Amino acid sequence: MGQDRESTVAAITAVWRAESARLVGALTRMTRDLDLAEDLAQDALLAALEQWPRDGVPATPGAWLMTTAKRRAIDTFRRAETLRRRTAEIGHSLSEEDGMPDLSTQVDSIEDDVLRLIFLSCHPRLTAESRAALTLRLVGGLTTAEIARGFLVPEATMGQRISRAKRTLTDAGIEFDLPVGTERMARLDDVMAVIYLVFNEGYTATAGSDWMRPELIAEAIRLARMIAALVLDEPEVHGLQALLELQASRMGARVDASGNAVLLEDQDRALWDVLLIRRGLAALATAEQLAASGRPVGRYFLQAVIAAHHARADTAQETDWRGIARMYDVLAQAAPGPVVEVNRAVAHGRAYGAAAGLAVLDALPDGALAGTHLLPSVRGDLLARAGRGSEAAVAFREAAGLTQNERERAVLLGRAESLG
């Protein structure tokens, strides 16, 4: 019996992760109250945890959650004298005869609700950190504890951050309507930036003892696929999906059996995930078709093209570094910035020799990326390739002193020691 309960709870968790965004989105549209919508969704989840282990998982579990939440919304409004009008509106949308309506009959509304929820979570009034936390909470369906673990902060701190974000939206009187025109495109860029932020924190953790946080990588890919399914005509959205899937395909080769970091050139490419590569290349092909029709592309599409160069190379030696360097030159024009320049230096160093890469770094303005390990770590690599071992060791030690990730620090100190 205990095993049956465990499998049922696992099924509930999977259903919640898949359906929570639709549920909260629809309830927010109906109630115009984000906090209430989340409370109602959580009530439905608790009801499932109580009833499904006893009665079994319903045939349409998402519809069961939606119906339960709507009924609780009706009860809530009936108790509130001033909200009787809303009771009628919600009651009208619930067929008492059918009991458990199939979500597929509401697909258009649901897709709009999820998209609204994504845009709401990434509202420009919120900080980047708050957007990421709220997106994982409302759209990803993660608990506050899970999000806190992912970003290495106390659960209480993350709870306060999420509460402040929701209060900010409420106090500002934010409407739960889809933005249109130029505002929609600006907000879409914010949405993609948040998803990419979540992925990067999972792919190379800022701090702590783990090189990666797979749960954040998985959520970022899920969010990218979700937004690509909702916004079909933007190549950048499909480019983002492609980028994340192609990079994530290397996860199995990025650490050894002891959890130590393995750099790209040393990875066993037989461990790369072929299915993720295939999905990433398919998403990139969709983006390329849209671009060919005249739709504009940007940094995610261009980075996906770069990632595809790596994915298509069977060995590190077969990597088309000149093609990658050319793409970084284009990226530097489309989305200029010091991080792009540092990555461009790596590509030029591989394609045209270490001196070419160092020349790109030397062109950076003074103080660029100050306080981060990225610049000295890349400089150390290029100096080592140029045969300037003692200078490279100094750069690697400087980078090791700046990173907060223990696995990354070990790699950098190891490279410094190998140079004497």
TrEMBL record:
Start and end residues of each RNA polymerase sigma-70 region domain: 19-80
Q: Which GO terms describe its molecular function?
A: DNA binding; sigma factor activity
Taxonomic superkingdom: Bacteria
* Residues annotated as domain RNA polymerase sigma factor 70 region 4 type: 117-169
Give one Pfam family, short name only.
Answer: Sigma70_r4_2
Q: Which InterPro entries does the record cross-reference, listed alphabetically? A: DUF6596, RNA_pol_sigma-70_dom, RNA_pol_sigma70_r2, RNA_pol_sigma70_r4_t2, RNA_pol_sigma_r2, RNA_pol_sigma_r3/r4-like, WH-like_DNA-bd_sf
Family statement? Belongs to the sigma-70 factor family. ECF subfamily.
Q: Please give the name of this protein.
A: RNA polymerase sigma factor (Sigma-70 family)
**Organism in which the protein naturally occurs:** Nocardioides daedukensis
